[in-house]
Specification:
Helices cover 9% and strands 25% of the residues. By secondary structure, the protein is mainly beta. The protein has one domain: Sandwich (Jelly Rolls). The strands form two sheets. Strands 1, 3, 4, 5 and 7 form a five-stranded antiparallel β-sheet that branches.
């Protein structure tokens, strides 16, 4: 019954975090084998990819707050040629070493400690780390009931 925790790589709904949470707060812990601290039994790690021009909405529903921890990371740019590539000319998706170095700082300032927050995937927010490349905002963040 835990497959629902694994198929949300590119999509967030407002309800998937709360399945089984109240009756069994540990139900998600074993589904994620990432290197988070086992003492954070109530932490739930999510991945979110948002194509340039759209807005990322980070949501933790029943959890109390969002923490974007450093080792999970965030990047506005392009690190592969397949993500957010549909309908794009080859010239816009070939540069795969594109990083906005301020991504994590900006996301943390907008989102840390909140239940939900919105981050536009746009040059107006992050500046433009690679002109003429179609970018995307890629994030891993943690919902936690910690203090």
């Amino acid at each position: 019954t835990h497959s629902h925790t694994l198929h949300h790589m590119h999509m967030l709904t407002h309800s998937h975090c709360n399945v089984h949470t109240l009756s069994n707060p540990l139900s998600h812990a074993h589904a994620h084998t990432h290197s988070h601290n086992p003492s954070h039994a109530h932490a739930h790690t999510l991945s979110l990819v948002t194509c340039e021009g759209s807005t990322a909405v980070l949501t933790c529903s029943l959890y109390t707050s969002i923490f974007t921890m450093f080792h999970y990371g965030a990047n506005y740019g392009r690190t592969d040629s397949t993500t957010c590539s549909a309908g794009r000319p080859t010239s816009q998706i070939t540069k795969t070493d594109c990083y906005a170095t301020n991504t994590l700082t900006l996301v943390k300032s907008k989102c840390d400690g909140k239940i939900t927050c919105s981050v536009p995937a746009s040059n107006s927010v992050f500046s433009d780390p690679c002109v003429n490349t179609y970018k995307y905002l890629s994030m891993r963040y943690t919902c936690t009931t910690g203090r």
